[in-house]
Specification:
The protein is an alpha/beta fold. It has four domains: about 5-180 and about 190-265, 3-Layer(aba) Sandwich (Rossmann fold), CATH 3.40.50; about 270-330, no CATH class; about 370-425, no CATH class; about 430-605, Rossmann fold. The chain has helices at about 20-30, 45-60, 75, 80-90, 115-125, 145, 160-170, 185-200, 210-220, 225-240, 250-260, 265-290, 295-315, 320-330, 390-400, 445-465, 490-495, 505-525, 550-560, 585-590, 605-625, and strands spanning about 35-40, 65, 80, 95, 105-110, 130-135, 150-155, 360, 365-370, 375-380, 420-425, 430-435, 465-475, 475-485, 530-535, 565-570, 595-600. The radius of gyration is 31 Å and the shape is globular. This is Mg-chelatase subunit ChlI. It holds the Pfam family AAA_lid_2. InterPro entries: AAA+_ATPase, ATPase_dyneun-rel_AAA, BchD/ChlD_VWA, ChlI/MoxR_AAA_lid, Mg-chelatase_DI-like, P-loop_NTPase, VWF_A, vWFA_dom_sf.
Length: about 625
Protein backbone atom coordinates (compact mmCIF):
# COMPACT_ATOMS: atom_id res chain seq x y z
CA UNK A 1 0.00 0.00 0.00
CA UNK A 2 2.93 2.35 0.66
CA UNK A 3 3.72 4.35 -2.49
CA UNK A 4 6.12 6.98 -1.15
CA UNK A 5 8.73 5.89 -3.70
CA UNK A 6 6.40 7.06 -6.47
CA UNK A 7 5.46 10.24 -4.64
CA UNK A 8 6.27 12.32 -7.74
CA UNK A 9 2.91 11.09 -9.04
CA UNK A 10 1.26 13.44 -6.55
CA UNK A 11 1.23 16.94 -8.05
CA UNK A 12 3.63 15.96 -10.87
CA UNK A 13 3.80 19.59 -12.05
CA UNK A 14 5.64 20.42 -8.80
CA UNK A 15 9.14 18.97 -8.76
CA UNK A 16 10.62 17.95 -5.40
CA UNK A 17 8.90 19.48 -2.37
CA UNK A 18 8.00 16.14 -0.84
CA UNK A 19 7.31 17.63 2.60
CA UNK A 20 4.50 20.03 1.54
CA UNK A 21 3.06 17.28 -0.67
CA UNK A 22 3.03 14.87 2.28
CA UNK A 23 1.32 17.45 4.52
CA UNK A 24 -1.45 18.06 1.96
CA UNK A 25 -1.83 14.34 1.30
CA UNK A 26 -2.25 13.56 5.02
CA UNK A 27 -5.02 16.17 5.22
CA UNK A 28 -6.81 14.44 2.36
CA UNK A 29 -6.59 11.10 4.20
CA UNK A 30 -7.62 12.60 7.56
CA UNK A 31 -9.38 16.01 7.41
CA UNK A 32 -8.96 16.38 11.19
CA UNK A 33 -5.23 17.02 10.64
CA UNK A 34 -6.12 20.72 10.77
CA UNK A 35 -5.00 22.13 7.42
CA UNK A 36 -1.58 23.21 6.10
CA UNK A 37 0.42 26.43 5.93
CA UNK A 38 2.98 26.29 3.08
CA UNK A 39 5.89 28.68 3.67
CA UNK A 40 8.62 29.54 1.20
CA UNK A 41 10.43 32.11 -0.89
CA UNK A 42 8.93 33.47 -4.10
CA UNK A 43 9.14 31.17 -7.11
CA UNK A 44 9.38 27.91 -5.14
CA UNK A 45 6.01 26.49 -6.26
CA UNK A 46 3.66 27.54 -3.45
CA UNK A 47 0.87 28.88 -5.68
CA UNK A 48 1.33 26.06 -8.19
CA UNK A 49 0.95 23.52 -5.39
CA UNK A 50 -2.29 25.21 -4.35
CA UNK A 51 -3.60 24.96 -7.94
CA UNK A 52 -2.63 21.28 -8.08
CA UNK A 53 -4.45 20.69 -4.81
CA UNK A 54 -7.49 22.42 -6.32
CA UNK A 55 -7.37 20.01 -9.26
CA UNK A 56 -7.36 16.96 -6.98
CA UNK A 57 -10.31 18.40 -5.02
CA UNK A 58 -12.32 18.80 -8.24
CA UNK A 59 -11.67 15.18 -9.24
CA UNK A 60 -12.58 14.03 -5.70
CA UNK A 61 -15.77 16.15 -5.75
CA UNK A 62 -14.79 17.68 -2.41
CA UNK A 63 -16.21 21.17 -1.64
CA UNK A 64 -13.73 24.04 -1.61
CA UNK A 65 -13.61 27.82 -1.96
CA UNK A 66 -10.85 30.32 -2.71
CA UNK A 67 -10.55 33.56 -0.76
CA UNK A 68 -9.10 36.43 -2.82
CA UNK A 69 -6.93 39.10 -1.18
CA UNK A 70 -9.49 41.84 -2.00
CA UNK A 71 -12.36 40.06 -0.24
CA UNK A 72 -14.85 42.08 1.83
CA UNK A 73 -16.34 41.21 5.20
CA UNK A 74 -19.81 40.62 3.74
CA UNK A 75 -18.45 38.33 1.05
CA UNK A 76 -16.74 36.27 3.75
CA UNK A 77 -19.56 35.81 6.26
CA UNK A 78 -22.63 36.67 4.15
CA UNK A 79 -25.06 39.57 3.92
CA UNK A 80 -28.30 40.80 2.36
CA UNK A 81 -29.37 39.65 -1.11
CA UNK A 82 -30.46 42.98 -2.58
CA UNK A 83 -32.55 41.73 -5.53
CA UNK A 84 -34.64 39.31 -3.45
CA UNK A 85 -34.95 41.84 -0.62
CA UNK A 86 -36.37 44.50 -3.00
CA UNK A 87 -38.84 42.01 -4.50
CA UNK A 88 -40.00 40.59 -1.18
CA UNK A 89 -39.98 43.79 0.86
CA UNK A 90 -38.10 42.20 3.78
CA UNK A 91 -34.48 41.24 4.38
CA UNK A 92 -33.33 38.10 2.58
CA UNK A 93 -29.87 36.91 3.64
CA UNK A 94 -27.39 34.97 1.53
CA UNK A 95 -24.50 32.86 2.79
CA UNK A 96 -20.88 33.91 2.52
CA UNK A 97 -17.84 32.18 1.05
CA UNK A 98 -17.01 30.41 4.32
CA UNK A 99 -20.48 28.85 4.57
CA UNK A 100 -20.03 27.25 1.15
CA UNK A 101 -16.86 25.49 2.34
CA UNK A 102 -18.57 23.41 5.02
CA UNK A 103 -16.81 20.04 5.48
CA UNK A 104 -14.41 21.01 2.70
CA UNK A 105 -11.34 23.17 2.16
CA UNK A 106 -10.61 26.90 2.11
CA UNK A 107 -7.66 27.95 -0.08
CA UNK A 108 -5.78 31.24 0.44
CA UNK A 109 -2.73 32.35 -1.54
CA UNK A 110 -0.43 34.82 0.31
CA UNK A 111 -2.40 34.71 3.55
CA UNK A 112 -0.09 37.30 5.14
CA UNK A 113 -1.67 39.97 2.89
CA UNK A 114 -5.12 39.54 4.46
CA UNK A 115 -6.05 41.96 7.29
CA UNK A 116 -6.00 40.49 10.81
CA UNK A 117 -9.71 41.15 11.34
CA UNK A 118 -10.55 39.00 8.29
CA UNK A 119 -8.22 36.24 9.50
CA UNK A 120 -10.05 36.29 12.84
CA UNK A 121 -13.37 35.80 11.02
CA UNK A 122 -11.93 32.90 9.02
CA UNK A 123 -10.47 31.11 12.04
CA UNK A 124 -13.70 31.56 14.02
CA UNK A 125 -15.40 29.28 11.48
CA UNK A 126 -12.36 27.03 10.91
CA UNK A 127 -14.00 24.10 12.73
CA UNK A 128 -16.27 23.67 9.67
CA UNK A 129 -13.45 23.32 7.11
CA UNK A 130 -9.72 22.78 6.58
CA UNK A 131 -7.55 25.76 5.68
CA UNK A 132 -4.72 25.36 3.16
CA UNK A 133 -2.74 28.56 2.66
CA UNK A 134 0.60 29.85 1.39
CA UNK A 135 2.89 32.46 2.92
CA UNK A 136 5.88 34.23 1.37
CA UNK A 137 8.64 34.13 4.00
CA UNK A 138 10.33 37.19 2.46
CA UNK A 139 7.28 39.47 2.74
CA UNK A 140 5.77 38.92 6.16
CA UNK A 141 4.73 36.64 8.99
CA UNK A 142 1.58 35.71 10.89
CA UNK A 143 1.10 36.20 14.60
CA UNK A 144 1.67 33.09 16.80
CA UNK A 145 -2.06 33.07 17.61
CA UNK A 146 -2.97 32.52 13.94
CA UNK A 147 -0.08 30.11 13.31
CA UNK A 148 -1.28 27.85 16.11
CA UNK A 149 -4.63 27.38 14.34
CA UNK A 150 -2.93 25.55 11.47
CA UNK A 151 -2.55 21.82 12.00
CA UNK A 152 0.63 21.56 9.93
CA UNK A 153 3.32 23.74 8.45
CA UNK A 154 5.67 22.81 5.58
CA UNK A 155 8.50 24.66 3.85
CA UNK A 156 9.05 24.62 0.09
CA UNK A 157 12.52 23.94 -1.31
CA UNK A 158 14.55 25.61 -4.05
CA UNK A 159 15.28 23.71 -7.25
CA UNK A 160 19.08 23.48 -7.07
CA UNK A 161 19.42 20.21 -8.98
CA UNK A 162 20.21 20.74 -12.68
CA UNK A 163 18.17 17.71 -13.80
CA UNK A 164 15.06 19.03 -12.02
CA UNK A 165 15.49 22.43 -13.67
CA UNK A 166 15.67 20.73 -17.08
CA UNK A 167 12.51 18.72 -16.31
CA UNK A 168 10.70 21.93 -15.44
CA UNK A 169 11.72 23.58 -18.71
CA UNK A 170 10.67 20.53 -20.77
CA UNK A 171 7.27 20.56 -19.06
CA UNK A 172 6.58 24.02 -20.51
CA UNK A 173 8.31 23.34 -23.84
CA UNK A 174 5.13 22.38 -25.68
CA UNK A 175 1.68 23.95 -25.37
CA UNK A 176 1.19 23.11 -21.72
CA UNK A 177 -2.44 23.00 -20.54
CA UNK A 178 -2.57 22.85 -16.75
CA UNK A 179 -6.17 21.64 -16.40
CA UNK A 180 -5.75 18.74 -18.85
CA UNK A 181 -2.26 17.58 -17.83
CA UNK A 182 -1.48 14.41 -15.83
CA UNK A 183 -5.17 13.57 -15.36
CA UNK A 184 -4.46 9.82 -15.14
CA UNK A 185 -1.99 10.35 -12.30
CA UNK A 186 -4.46 12.57 -10.44
CA UNK A 187 -7.27 10.04 -10.83
CA UNK A 188 -4.94 7.29 -9.62
CA UNK A 189 -4.00 9.39 -6.57
CA UNK A 190 -7.69 9.96 -5.74
CA UNK A 191 -8.34 6.19 -5.84
CA UNK A 192 -5.38 5.60 -3.52
CA UNK A 193 -6.65 8.26 -1.11
CA UNK A 194 -10.04 6.52 -0.91
CA UNK A 195 -8.33 3.19 -0.11
CA UNK A 196 -6.14 4.83 2.53
CA UNK A 197 -9.21 6.39 4.18
CA UNK A 198 -10.66 2.91 4.61
CA UNK A 199 -7.34 1.59 5.95
CA UNK A 200 -7.11 4.49 8.43
CA UNK A 201 -10.27 3.28 10.20
CA UNK A 202 -8.56 -0.08 10.85
CA UNK A 203 -5.37 1.34 12.40
CA UNK A 204 -4.99 0.27 16.07
CA UNK A 205 -3.90 2.80 18.69
CA UNK A 206 -1.98 1.36 21.65
CA UNK A 207 -1.99 3.04 25.09
CA UNK A 208 1.72 4.01 24.99
CA UNK A 209 1.12 6.26 21.95
CA UNK A 210 -0.58 8.91 24.11
CA UNK A 211 2.54 9.20 26.29
CA UNK A 212 4.73 9.34 23.19
CA UNK A 213 2.70 12.22 21.71
CA UNK A 214 2.74 14.23 24.96
CA UNK A 215 6.50 13.70 25.42
CA UNK A 216 7.23 14.74 21.83
CA UNK A 217 5.25 17.96 22.19
CA UNK A 218 6.76 18.91 25.57
CA UNK A 219 10.29 18.14 24.36
CA UNK A 220 9.93 20.96 21.81
CA UNK A 221 8.55 23.34 24.49
CA UNK A 222 5.15 23.55 22.80
CA UNK A 223 2.33 24.18 25.29
CA UNK A 224 -0.65 24.28 22.94
CA UNK A 225 -3.18 21.45 23.29
CA UNK A 226 -3.93 21.79 19.58
CA UNK A 227 -0.45 20.44 18.88
CA UNK A 228 -1.19 17.14 20.66
CA UNK A 229 -4.56 16.73 18.92
CA UNK A 230 -3.20 17.49 15.44
CA UNK A 231 -0.12 15.30 16.02
CA UNK A 232 -2.34 12.33 16.86
CA UNK A 233 -4.44 12.65 13.70
CA UNK A 234 -1.36 13.30 11.55
CA UNK A 235 0.32 10.17 12.96
CA UNK A 236 -2.84 8.16 12.33
CA UNK A 237 -3.00 9.32 8.70
CA UNK A 238 0.72 8.62 8.27
CA UNK A 239 0.34 5.07 9.60
CA UNK A 240 -2.35 4.46 6.96
CA UNK A 241 -0.16 6.13 4.35
CA UNK A 242 2.63 3.65 5.17
CA UNK A 243 0.20 0.72 4.97
CA UNK A 244 0.45 -0.15 8.68
CA UNK A 245 -2.38 -1.54 10.80
CA UNK A 246 -1.06 -0.18 14.11
CA UNK A 247 0.15 3.26 15.13
CA UNK A 248 3.85 3.16 16.08
CA UNK A 249 6.26 5.56 17.77
CA UNK A 250 8.23 6.14 14.56
CA UNK A 251 5.03 7.36 12.86
CA UNK A 252 4.76 10.10 15.51
CA UNK A 253 8.43 11.02 15.01
CA UNK A 254 8.12 11.26 11.22
CA UNK A 255 5.24 13.78 11.24
CA UNK A 256 6.19 15.74 14.38
CA UNK A 257 8.16 18.25 12.26
CA UNK A 258 5.03 19.10 10.28
CA UNK A 259 2.90 19.70 13.38
CA UNK A 260 5.46 21.37 15.67
CA UNK A 261 7.51 23.42 13.20
CA UNK A 262 5.49 26.64 13.58
CA UNK A 263 4.88 26.15 17.31
CA UNK A 264 8.45 25.73 18.57
CA UNK A 265 9.57 28.13 21.28
CA UNK A 266 13.31 28.54 20.92
CA UNK A 267 13.53 31.18 23.68
CA UNK A 268 12.09 28.81 26.29
CA UNK A 269 14.42 26.10 25.04
CA UNK A 270 17.47 28.32 25.53
CA UNK A 271 16.39 29.34 29.04
CA UNK A 272 15.93 25.73 30.14
CA UNK A 273 19.26 24.66 28.62
CA UNK A 274 21.03 27.51 30.45
CA UNK A 275 19.39 26.51 33.74
CA UNK A 276 20.39 22.88 33.18
CA UNK A 277 23.99 23.88 32.55
CA UNK A 278 24.09 25.88 35.79
CA UNK A 279 22.60 22.98 37.74
CA UNK A 280 25.06 20.53 36.20
CA UNK A 281 27.99 22.77 37.16
CA UNK A 282 26.74 22.98 40.76
CA UNK A 283 26.29 19.21 40.93
CA UNK A 284 29.80 18.64 39.54
CA UNK A 285 31.30 20.89 42.23
CA UNK A 286 29.34 19.12 44.97
CA UNK A 287 30.37 15.72 43.63
CA UNK A 288 34.03 16.74 43.64
CA UNK A 289 33.76 17.92 47.24
CA UNK A 290 32.03 14.69 48.29
CA UNK A 291 34.74 12.58 46.67
CA UNK A 292 37.46 14.18 48.85
CA UNK A 293 38.33 12.46 52.19
CA UNK A 294 37.30 14.21 55.43
CA UNK A 295 40.87 15.28 56.24
CA UNK A 296 41.25 16.92 52.85
CA UNK A 297 37.91 18.73 53.26
CA UNK A 298 39.12 20.24 56.58
CA UNK A 299 42.37 21.32 54.98
CA UNK A 300 40.36 22.76 52.10
CA UNK A 301 38.32 24.90 54.56
CA UNK A 302 41.52 26.19 56.18
CA UNK A 303 42.94 27.02 52.78
CA UNK A 304 39.76 28.91 51.90
CA UNK A 305 39.99 30.93 55.14
CA UNK A 306 43.64 31.81 54.55
CA UNK A 307 42.85 32.70 50.93
CA UNK A 308 40.16 35.16 52.09
CA UNK A 309 42.68 36.89 54.39
CA UNK A 310 45.21 37.09 51.60
CA UNK A 311 42.56 38.40 49.23
CA UNK A 312 42.00 41.49 51.40
CA UNK A 313 45.67 42.39 51.02
CA UNK A 314 45.56 41.71 47.30
CA UNK A 315 42.54 44.00 46.89
CA UNK A 316 44.64 47.01 47.85
CA UNK A 317 47.51 46.17 45.52
CA UNK A 318 45.28 45.07 42.63
CA UNK A 319 42.78 47.94 42.72
CA UNK A 320 43.84 48.99 39.25
CA UNK A 321 42.84 45.57 37.85
CA UNK A 322 39.42 45.78 39.53
CA UNK A 323 38.76 49.25 38.16
CA UNK A 324 39.52 48.03 34.65
CA UNK A 325 37.01 45.18 35.12
CA UNK A 326 34.37 47.67 36.29
CA UNK A 327 35.04 49.78 33.23
CA UNK A 328 34.23 46.75 31.09
CA UNK A 329 30.68 46.68 32.46
CA UNK A 330 30.05 50.36 33.15
CA UNK A 331 32.64 52.40 31.26
CA UNK A 332 32.31 56.07 32.07
CA UNK A 333 35.52 57.38 30.60
CA UNK A 334 35.38 60.99 29.48
CA UNK A 335 37.58 60.16 26.50
CA UNK A 336 35.67 60.71 23.26
CA UNK A 337 35.96 58.53 20.18
CA UNK A 338 34.16 58.62 16.83
CA UNK A 339 33.56 55.17 15.34
CA UNK A 340 32.82 54.42 11.71
CA UNK A 341 29.53 53.07 10.35
CA UNK A 342 29.30 49.27 10.44
CA UNK A 343 27.68 46.77 8.09
CA UNK A 344 24.39 47.81 6.45
CA UNK A 345 21.69 45.16 6.04
CA UNK A 346 18.05 44.69 5.11
CA UNK A 347 15.94 45.22 8.23
CA UNK A 348 13.42 42.67 9.44
CA UNK A 349 9.84 43.83 8.97
CA UNK A 350 8.33 45.33 12.13
CA UNK A 351 4.56 44.94 12.43
CA UNK A 352 2.59 47.36 14.61
CA UNK A 353 -1.05 47.00 15.61
CA UNK A 354 -3.64 49.11 13.85
CA UNK A 355 -5.44 51.73 15.92
CA UNK A 356 -8.89 53.32 15.47
CA UNK A 357 -7.70 56.83 14.52
CA UNK A 358 -8.87 58.12 11.11
CA UNK A 359 -6.00 59.92 9.36
CA UNK A 360 -5.38 62.03 6.26
CA UNK A 361 -1.74 61.02 5.76
CA UNK A 362 -0.16 58.55 3.34
CA UNK A 363 2.93 56.36 3.43
CA UNK A 364 4.13 52.79 3.13
CA UNK A 365 4.42 51.37 6.64
CA UNK A 366 1.31 50.69 8.76
CA UNK A 367 -2.32 50.31 7.70
CA UNK A 368 -4.71 52.88 9.16
CA UNK A 369 -8.24 54.12 8.58
CA UNK A 370 -8.23 57.06 6.19
CA UNK A 371 -10.52 59.93 5.25
CA UNK A 372 -8.81 60.37 1.87
CA UNK A 373 -10.58 59.31 -1.35
CA UNK A 374 -8.14 56.50 -2.13
CA UNK A 375 -7.64 53.37 -0.07
CA UNK A 376 -8.94 49.86 0.43
CA UNK A 377 -12.67 49.54 1.17
CA UNK A 378 -13.35 47.92 4.56
CA UNK A 379 -17.06 48.22 5.32
CA UNK A 380 -20.16 50.41 5.14
CA UNK A 381 -20.81 52.75 8.07
CA UNK A 382 -23.73 55.02 8.96
CA UNK A 383 -21.65 58.08 9.86
CA UNK A 384 -18.48 59.46 8.30
CA UNK A 385 -16.78 62.87 8.19
CA UNK A 386 -15.57 62.59 4.59
CA UNK A 387 -19.08 61.75 3.25
CA UNK A 388 -17.78 59.27 0.65
CA UNK A 389 -21.05 57.50 -0.18
CA UNK A 390 -21.11 53.72 -0.47
CA UNK A 391 -23.70 53.22 -3.23
CA UNK A 392 -24.01 49.46 -2.78
CA UNK A 393 -24.39 49.80 1.00
CA UNK A 394 -26.99 52.56 0.58
CA UNK A 395 -29.10 50.44 -1.79
CA UNK A 396 -28.80 47.47 0.55
CA UNK A 397 -30.03 49.50 3.56
CA UNK A 398 -32.98 50.92 1.55
CA UNK A 399 -33.98 47.61 -0.11
CA UNK A 400 -36.18 46.13 2.69
CA UNK A 401 -38.45 49.24 2.75
CA UNK A 402 -39.28 49.59 -0.96
CA UNK A 403 -42.68 47.88 -0.71
CA UNK A 404 -43.68 50.03 2.29
CA UNK A 405 -42.59 53.19 0.47
CA UNK A 406 -44.72 52.31 -2.57
CA UNK A 407 -41.91 51.79 -5.07
CA UNK A 408 -43.01 51.34 -8.70
CA UNK A 409 -39.95 51.75 -10.94
CA UNK A 410 -37.19 53.79 -9.30
CA UNK A 411 -35.69 53.06 -5.90
CA UNK A 412 -36.91 55.32 -3.12
CA UNK A 413 -33.97 56.31 -0.93
CA UNK A 414 -34.27 58.46 2.19
CA UNK A 415 -31.53 60.38 3.95
CA UNK A 416 -31.31 57.80 6.74
CA UNK A 417 -30.49 55.10 4.14
CA UNK A 418 -27.16 56.68 3.22
CA UNK A 419 -24.11 54.59 4.01
CA UNK A 420 -20.51 55.72 3.75
CA UNK A 421 -17.26 53.96 2.94
CA UNK A 422 -14.80 53.13 5.69
CA UNK A 423 -11.39 52.72 4.04
CA UNK A 424 -7.81 52.03 5.02
CA UNK A 425 -4.44 52.76 3.49
CA UNK A 426 -0.83 52.68 4.59
CA UNK A 427 0.58 55.66 6.46
CA UNK A 428 4.06 56.90 7.35
CA UNK A 429 5.40 57.47 10.88
CA UNK A 430 7.73 59.82 12.68
CA UNK A 431 10.58 57.57 13.85
CA UNK A 432 12.54 58.95 16.81
CA UNK A 433 15.93 57.30 17.46
CA UNK A 434 17.29 57.53 21.02
CA UNK A 435 20.96 56.53 20.81
CA UNK A 436 23.24 55.57 23.69
CA UNK A 437 26.58 57.35 23.18
CA UNK A 438 28.14 56.39 26.51
CA UNK A 439 31.51 54.71 27.00
CA UNK A 440 29.94 51.24 27.27
CA UNK A 441 29.10 51.44 23.56
CA UNK A 442 32.81 51.68 22.75
CA UNK A 443 33.61 48.23 24.16
CA UNK A 444 34.81 45.99 21.30
CA UNK A 445 33.76 48.76 18.88
CA UNK A 446 30.09 48.03 19.55
CA UNK A 447 29.19 51.53 18.31
CA UNK A 448 30.21 50.54 14.76
CA UNK A 449 27.55 47.82 14.70
CA UNK A 450 25.02 50.21 16.27
CA UNK A 451 25.66 52.87 13.62
CA UNK A 452 25.31 50.22 10.91
CA UNK A 453 21.96 49.17 12.39
CA UNK A 454 20.77 52.81 12.59
CA UNK A 455 21.75 53.43 8.96
CA UNK A 456 19.89 50.26 7.94
CA UNK A 457 16.82 51.50 9.84
CA UNK A 458 17.17 54.95 8.23
CA UNK A 459 17.14 53.33 4.77
CA UNK A 460 14.03 51.39 5.76
CA UNK A 461 12.41 54.64 6.96
CA UNK A 462 13.24 56.32 3.64
CA UNK A 463 11.57 53.47 1.72
CA UNK A 464 8.49 53.69 3.96
CA UNK A 465 8.36 57.52 3.61
CA UNK A 466 8.85 58.08 7.35
CA UNK A 467 10.26 61.20 8.97
CA UNK A 468 13.20 60.60 11.32
CA UNK A 469 14.67 62.37 14.34
CA UNK A 470 17.67 61.50 16.49
CA UNK A 471 18.50 62.06 20.15
CA UNK A 472 21.85 61.17 21.68
CA UNK A 473 22.59 60.85 25.38
CA UNK A 474 26.01 60.62 27.06
CA UNK A 475 28.05 62.22 29.85
CA UNK A 476 25.59 64.51 31.70
CA UNK A 477 23.40 65.56 28.79
CA UNK A 478 20.96 64.51 26.07
CA UNK A 479 20.52 66.54 22.91
CA UNK A 480 18.35 66.47 19.80
CA UNK A 481 21.04 66.07 17.14
CA UNK A 482 18.42 65.81 14.38
CA UNK A 483 14.88 67.27 14.55
CA UNK A 484 12.13 65.47 12.55
CA UNK A 485 13.13 65.48 8.87
CA UNK A 486 12.55 63.57 5.64
CA UNK A 487 16.17 63.99 4.51
CA UNK A 488 18.05 60.69 4.71
CA UNK A 489 21.29 62.43 3.63
CA UNK A 490 21.16 64.83 6.58
CA UNK A 491 20.44 61.94 8.94
CA UNK A 492 23.47 60.03 7.62
CA UNK A 493 25.77 63.05 8.06
CA UNK A 494 24.68 63.43 11.68
CA UNK A 495 24.98 59.69 12.31
CA UNK A 496 28.57 59.21 11.13
CA UNK A 497 29.82 62.09 13.35
CA UNK A 498 28.20 60.85 16.58
CA UNK A 499 30.88 60.59 19.32
CA UNK A 500 31.14 57.95 22.04
CA UNK A 501 32.31 58.30 25.65
CA UNK A 502 31.20 59.18 29.16
CA UNK A 503 28.42 58.08 31.51
CA UNK A 504 24.94 56.78 30.61
CA UNK A 505 22.16 59.32 31.40
CA UNK A 506 19.43 57.06 29.96
CA UNK A 507 16.63 58.82 31.87
CA UNK A 508 17.71 62.16 30.39
CA UNK A 509 17.63 60.71 26.85
CA UNK A 510 14.13 59.29 27.39
CA UNK A 511 12.92 62.57 28.89
CA UNK A 512 14.19 64.48 25.85
CA UNK A 513 12.42 61.94 23.60
CA UNK A 514 9.19 62.41 25.60
CA UNK A 515 9.35 66.19 25.06
CA UNK A 516 10.03 65.79 21.32
CA UNK A 517 7.17 63.30 20.94
CA UNK A 518 4.69 65.61 22.68
CA UNK A 519 5.84 68.54 20.52
CA UNK A 520 5.44 66.51 17.28
CA UNK A 521 1.98 65.33 18.35
CA UNK A 522 0.82 68.90 19.02
CA UNK A 523 1.88 69.94 15.50
CA UNK A 524 0.46 66.87 13.75
CA UNK A 525 -2.18 65.09 15.91
CA UNK A 526 -2.78 62.43 13.21
CA UNK A 527 0.86 61.33 13.16
CA UNK A 528 1.84 57.98 14.61
CA UNK A 529 5.27 57.88 16.27
CA UNK A 530 7.81 55.06 16.65
CA UNK A 531 10.35 55.40 19.46
CA UNK A 532 13.48 53.29 18.84
CA UNK A 533 15.90 53.10 21.79
CA UNK A 534 19.36 51.70 21.02
CA UNK A 535 21.14 51.02 24.31
CA UNK A 536 22.42 48.34 26.66
CA UNK A 537 20.16 49.79 29.37
CA UNK A 538 22.98 50.28 31.91
CA UNK A 539 21.88 53.66 33.27
CA UNK A 540 24.42 55.11 35.75
CA UNK A 541 23.63 58.84 35.70
CA UNK A 542 20.40 60.31 37.15
CA UNK A 543 18.81 63.66 36.30
CA UNK A 544 18.56 64.60 39.98
CA UNK A 545 21.59 63.96 42.15
CA UNK A 546 21.00 61.23 44.72
CA UNK A 547 18.21 59.57 42.70
CA UNK A 548 18.39 55.93 41.61
CA UNK A 549 19.01 56.06 37.80
CA UNK A 550 17.07 52.83 37.18
CA UNK A 551 13.97 53.99 39.11
CA UNK A 552 14.13 57.31 37.26
CA UNK A 553 14.17 55.47 33.92
CA UNK A 554 11.22 53.34 35.01
CA UNK A 555 9.10 56.41 35.87
CA UNK A 556 9.76 58.11 32.53
CA UNK A 557 9.06 54.86 30.65
CA UNK A 558 5.66 54.57 32.33
CA UNK A 559 4.77 58.08 31.09
CA UNK A 560 5.82 57.24 27.52
CA UNK A 561 3.90 53.96 27.70
CA UNK A 562 0.67 55.89 28.40
CA UNK A 563 0.85 57.64 24.99
CA UNK A 564 -1.49 55.67 22.71
CA UNK A 565 0.04 57.12 19.53
CA UNK A 566 3.57 55.88 20.34
CA UNK A 567 4.97 52.43 19.49
CA UNK A 568 8.21 51.67 21.31
CA UNK A 569 11.06 49.42 20.18
CA UNK A 570 14.14 48.63 22.28
CA UNK A 571 17.23 47.31 20.49
CA UNK A 572 19.60 45.65 22.93
CA UNK A 573 23.20 46.63 22.14
CA UNK A 574 24.76 44.66 25.00
CA UNK A 575 27.42 42.03 24.22
CA UNK A 576 25.77 38.75 25.20
CA UNK A 577 28.96 36.67 25.13
CA UNK A 578 30.30 38.73 28.04
CA UNK A 579 30.01 37.23 31.55
CA UNK A 580 29.03 40.70 32.83
CA UNK A 581 25.80 40.82 30.79
CA UNK A 582 22.81 42.20 32.72
CA UNK A 583 19.87 42.15 30.22
CA UNK A 584 18.62 45.55 31.42
CA UNK A 585 17.40 46.47 27.92
CA UNK A 586 14.83 43.67 28.15
CA UNK A 587 13.43 45.29 31.32
CA UNK A 588 13.42 48.64 29.53
CA UNK A 589 11.22 47.17 26.78
CA UNK A 590 8.75 45.88 29.41
CA UNK A 591 8.53 49.29 31.09
CA UNK A 592 7.85 50.93 27.70
CA UNK A 593 5.33 48.18 26.77
CA UNK A 594 7.28 47.86 23.54
CA UNK A 595 8.98 45.33 21.29
CA UNK A 596 12.42 43.93 22.14
CA UNK A 597 15.13 42.94 19.66
CA UNK A 598 18.76 41.98 19.97
CA UNK A 599 20.95 44.03 17.65
CA UNK A 600 21.76 40.89 15.64
CA UNK A 601 18.07 39.94 15.30
CA UNK A 602 17.25 43.02 13.21
CA UNK A 603 18.55 41.40 10.04
CA UNK A 604 15.85 40.13 7.68
CA UNK A 605 18.25 37.43 6.46
CA UNK A 606 18.09 35.82 9.91
CA UNK A 607 14.44 34.98 9.21
CA UNK A 608 15.37 33.51 5.82
CA UNK A 609 18.22 31.55 7.44
CA UNK A 610 15.75 30.15 9.96
CA UNK A 611 13.52 28.97 7.10
CA UNK A 612 16.55 27.34 5.42
CA UNK A 613 17.50 25.63 8.68
CA UNK A 614 13.97 24.29 9.11
CA UNK A 615 14.02 23.07 5.50
CA UNK A 616 17.26 21.16 6.15
CA UNK A 617 15.72 19.52 9.22
CA UNK A 618 12.74 18.45 7.07
CA UNK A 619 14.94 16.88 4.41
CA UNK A 620 17.02 15.05 7.02
CA UNK A 621 13.88 13.62 8.59
CA UNK A 622 12.59 12.50 5.17
CA UNK A 623 15.84 10.69 4.40
CA UNK A 624 15.15 8.36 7.35
CA UNK A 625 12.25 6.80 5.46
Amino acid sequence: MNFYQSFEDIFPEVLGNRTPKLAIFLNLIEPRCGGVLIIGKKGTGKSLMLNCFKKILKISNLPFVEIPIGVTEETLIGGINIEKTIEKGSRVFEEGILDRAKEGFVLIDDINLLPDEYLSLIFKKAENFNLVATLNSEEGVLSPHFLDRFGMCAVTEDLKDLSNKQKLLKLYENNYQFEDSFLEKYESAVRKIERLKVLKEKVRVEEFIWDKISETVLKEFVFSHRAEIFLFYASLAYAAFKGEFSLKENHVDEVSHLVLLHRKREIEKQKVSEEKQKEEKKEDKEDRQDLKPSGERKEHKKENFSQKEKQKEKNRSESSEESSQIEMSFPCSSKEEIFGVGEVFKVKRMIFEKDKTIRSTTGRRTKSKTRLKGGRFLRSVMFSKDKDIDLFGTIRSAAPFQVLRGRKNKLIIYKEDFRYKEKERKISHVVSFVVDGSGSMGVQKRMEAVKGAILSLLMDCYQKRDKVSMIMFRKNQAEVVLPPTSSSDLAYKKLKDLPTGGKTPLSLGLLEAYKLIKKSHLKHPDTRIILIVLSDGKANQAIKSGEDPILEVKRICSEIGKLSYVDSVVIDCELKNNFLKMDLAKELAKWLSGKYFLLEDLKAENLVNLIDQIKTEHLESLERF
